[in-house]
Amino acid sequence: MQNTARSATQIGAILRRARRARHLSQTKLGEKIGLRQATISKLEKGEPATQLSTLLDVLTALNLELAITERERASKEDLEHIF
Length: 83
Known about the structure:
Radius of gyration: 14 Å
Number of helices: 5
Number of strands: 0
Number of domains: 1
Helix content: 55-70%
CATH architecture: Orthogonal Bundle
CATH class: Mainly Alpha
CATH topology: 434 Repressor (Amino-terminal Domain)
Strand content: under 5%
Structural class: mainly alpha
Largest sheet: none
CATH superfamily: lambda repressor-like DNA-binding domains
C-alpha cells in the first residue's frame, strides 16, 4: 500500500499505523532500534527536529521505505509554510 505524506504529522500517522499493524508497542519498536519510547512518540506526533537517521531507522524496523516523487500540485499555502 502506498501512502502520501506532505507533513511531519502525516509521516507520523503513517508510521503509527504501520507500527500498530505489526502489533508493536512504541517501547518494543524503540527497543528494536535502540531508541527510547519517548522518541518514537515524538516521531509519531510529527514533532520537529527528528533526525533523518532516526526516521530511516524506524522505516527499516517497520520494513518500509521512503520514496521521493514529484508533487501532483503544490498550493500557495504549501509553499508559504516552507518559507
